[in-house]
Amino acid sequence: MAKELKDLTKRADNYSQWYNDLVMKADLAETSPVRGCMIIKPYGYAIWEKMQAALDAMFKATGVQNAYFPLLIPKSFFAKEAEHVAGFAKESAVVTHYRLKATEDGKGITVDPEAKLEEELIIRPTSETMIWNTYKNWIKSYRDLPILCNQWCNVMRWEMRTRPFLRTSEFLWQEGHTAHATSEEAQEEAKKMLGVYADFAENWMAVPVVQGVKSETERFAGALDTYTIEAMMQDGKALQSGTSHFLGQNFAKSFDVTFLNKENKPEYVWATSWGVSTRLMGALIMVHSDDNGLVLPPKLAPIQVVIIPISKNAEQLEAISAKINPLMEELTKMGISVKYDDSDNKRPGFKFADYELKGVPVRLVMGARDLENGTVEVMRRDTLEKEILPFEGVANHVQHLLVDIQKTIFEKARQYRDNHIYECDNYEEFKERIKDGGFFLCHWDGTTETEAKIKEDTQATIRCVPFGYEQTEGVDMVSGKPAKCRVIIARSY
Amino acid sequence: MAKELKDLTKRADNYSQWYNDLVMKADLAETSPVRGCMIIKPYGYAIWEKMQAALDAMFKATGVQNAYFPLLIPKSFFAKEAEHVAGFAKESAVVTHYRLKATEDGKGITVDPEAKLEEELIIRPTSETMIWNTYKNWIKSYRDLPILCNQWCNVMRWEMRTRPFLRTSEFLWQEGHTAHATSEEAQEEAKKMLGVYADFAENWMAVPVVQGVKSETERFAGALDTYTIEAMMQDGKALQSGTSHFLGQNFAKSFDVTFLNKENKPEYVWATSWGVSTRLMGALIMVHSDDNGLVLPPKLAPIQVVIIPISKNAEQLEAISAKINPLMEELTKMGISVKYDDSDNKRPGFKFADYELKGVPVRLVMGARDLENGTVEVMRRDTLEKEILPFEGVANHVQHLLVDIQKTIFEKARQYRDNHIYECDNYEEFKERIKDGGFFLCHWDGTTETEAKIKEDTQATIRCVPFGYEQTEGVDMVSGKPAKCRVIIARSY
């Protein structure tokens, strides 16, 4: 057994340590010398690239175009949107100087005190301010609307406690920023993009999500409504996986962005913003993987099929390769990414463990006996089930198997999730059961006081008012006051 | 005529102003409130995305994988590679604090003096230092080599004089960083990637380039050799469009990166780095465009074909659309990106000028007479030639036309370039003729003194020792000393 795999913490022993181990051992990411910033390694980045490509195509299908706005934002911009200061400007990286010089002894370098900026610049924690300052010049008339822009970029928030992918000071994301003539159109856009996120999570990541709307406390700074998709991890905790915000006219007012409507009268523009980040990698890893390593959905796996020969000598290897090469071609033609690992510096057992650790969805093994019998061994990573199949027609089998794995791991995650959603009406019971994780559907009186008490008592937070759940009025389990609807309460990442 | 077009400066009047005008009026980019940083608008970004996609596929075909390294680099890293300090660390953006707080009157925000970093962080001007600090952990044995990594990211150099795309403080680029067991392999890699850049420039951008090696003065800080591709703009100036560096063991020594060779002995690792940036957009714009606006190579044009109906009433428009819709489908199936502009808030003349300004390679126009005659008007943007063609079979014609335009604009640029490359052996003559631009092939004695004198007298620099040019020994035109080869001397961007 490969050393990497042997050292992987088991989920039951320490779920959190299992996650950290897996990120490192599966070559997804590692820590860097800069506090809270990670290095995304090629294998991890290849998964992120696949996510990006799928999301980007989905955005574009709704009419969104990409653009690029500056990394640095003048400090004064943050002061323009009052809630934004409190929400974003505080824990940010601040650029104060623009030059270094040699130290007097000539051996080191130091900041040149004469190269101090007149106004400090902030590394973007999010770009609403810069973008709305720009939209002011782009929007004159209703004919210029809507504007549907997105950017893929890095952002920075000076986080105190960080974990790879889940919470890092620098992270990669996309941020969509749209401008509309009416409130209705903006609200529709915000919900549409939430739908895109949910579609992507479920149909690409195979991660079931609950769509809903955030409570006021959990809203994005400057938003009138924040919509969210919440996924459940294998420890029953929630991971907020994407958010979409209806920003009303807040940013338009802060940056004085008006348009002439059809009656030639000026109106403030309506806004949305929406984003997902490398945090999605955390959800992907945590939802499907097991004690043997990663389990990746075939649609996002950098390598979908690995083929490993087992041979005693060069002659056998040559005979196996002669069978495998046309199969490789056939699979490639089907659009399947396949790797033939005939490297001779690692034993088959090491390779098996390594590709399991890396979550390659399907493994084919061919040995001398297979060669004789015209067979091949096929293993699926999700269930680790093996079968010996006729070599003839195996490409078609693999193609169907990949579809099946995608479906199976989604169903498995959905069942787990559904089995851990509970309606609960008793606060004492809630406090006890929340320790084991899960999403709790509880009536809420709508006050921040109740929300704060739950958080203080249990560390759990209101994740959202879920969509598509049949609501009934009831009684808040904490305050005893009347409640209009149930919300989902859970501990979260 | 559209106002935007009317205001476009003519190349002959002021080439530099023509470029700036074009970037703004064709909606490619605009300046931002942050000094030297630009906003890349959706139309400009769509071209950059096409460049990225093509380059990325070419890199990957050579075995390169993408990864992501932190934006911020500890100041001390730059002190480790002596030449790098002088070359890169000096004019950089420096992060000194990590928190803002409200001012005492509560109305503004200010930097929290208590949140001062122990060590300042530099926004990456390039990532050799961070990456080689990382490679130290990735490389133990010859089996770990080669490492072929690339990242697409933003970088920042505090430039004093900036121009959109050509020189900006923040820019987007890719930086490849490879690690090898031998000097030969690293040198081969550096040359291979230069070849990829030349291939991309010529076959995608339709921009002919001279490949060559830089003089010591013009080398990248920390490199033993810098290879370059140099393109000629329409004013005869050179634009360095991509560079690839053989870094020897400099960074391995600075960051102590060794590997055990096959004999189990430690050796320092050999390195290359190579990059192209949004600067390529500048070359693309300047090489092909004319006084009517952009001319884009079909392979990189976001819209390859625009179709404009001319109708007197709704009935005519409907009849035209009924003909156009199946054509749109046919073109789309051929992989051609096509836009049907039947918007009724702009006159056809405005549309014509606007799509010329934006460089759409092919324009189709259909009016009432075409409808009667079963014809369509086809215009190619590069020559502005129009023909009336039978509507039947026009999709095939357009497909061939796009290929022809790609070839024609490359040939035109190549001819211009070749007509402006001169061998020159007389310094007085050189000083006179360099004023009109062009690449001058001159014997050079190899000294930095001669190089400095030429620059001081004429602002021209040695661009490279060109590859594939039959060299002869001769006499340096400035110093009169013996010279082993001719170099290309030109004024540059």
Outline the secondary-structure elements.
Two copies of one chain form a homodimer.
Chain A: H1 3-6, H2 15-25, E1 29-31, E2 38-40, H3 42-61, E3 65-66, E4 72-74, H4 75-80, H5 82-89, E5 94-97, E6 100-102, E7 109-111, E8 116-123, H6 128-138, E9 147-156, E10 170-180, H7 183-203, E11 209-213, E12 225-232, E13 238-248, H8 250-254, E14 258-260, E15 266-268, E16 270-277, H9 279-288, E17 305-309, H10 314-333, E18 338-340, H11 348-357, E19 362-366, H12 368-373, E20 375-380, E21 386-390, H13 394-419, E22 421-423, H14 427-433, E23 439-444, H15 448-458, E24 461-466, E25 474-475, E26 482-483, E27 485-490
Parallel strand pairs in A: 3-9, 17-18, 17-19, 22-23
Antiparallel strand pairs in A: 1-2, 4-8, 5-8, 6-7, 9-10, 10-16, 11-12, 11-24, 12-13, 13-16, 14-15, 19-20, 20-21, 23-27, 24-27, 25-26
Could you explain how this protein is built, in words?
Chains A, B: It is found in: Cytoplasm. Chains A, B: Catalyzes the attachment of proline to tRNA(Pro) in a two-step reaction: proline is first activated by ATP to form Pro-AMP and then transferred to the acceptor end of tRNA(Pro). Chains A, B: Belongs to the class-II aminoacyl-tRNA synthetase family. ProS type 3 subfamily. The structure is a homodimer of 493-residue chains. With 493 residues, the first copy, chain A, is α+β, with helices and mostly antiparallel strands. Chain A folds into three domains: 15-75 and 127-288, Bira Bifunctional Protein, Domain 2 (BirA Bifunctional Protein, domain 2, 2-Layer Sandwich), CATH 3.30.930.10; 305-404, Anticodon-binding domain (Rossmann fold), CATH 3.40.50; 421-491, Translation Initiation Factor IF3 (2-Layer Sandwich). Helix content of chain A is 36%, strand content 28%. The first copy, chain A, has 15 helices and 27 strands. In chain A, the strands form seven sheets. The first copy, chain A, has an eleven-stranded mixed sheet, with helices on both faces. A five-stranded mixed sheet of chain A has the order 18-17-19-20-21, sandwiched between helices. A three-stranded antiparallel sheet of chain A has the order 4-8-5. In chain A, helix 3 crosses helix 7. The model of chain A has no long low-confidence stretch (mean pLDDT 95). Chains A and B meet through strand 2, helix 3, strand 3, strand 4 and helix 4 of A and strand 2, helix 3, strand 3, strand 4 and helix 4 of B. Strand 5 of chain A pairs antiparallel with strand 5 (94-97) of chain B, so a sheet runs across the interface.
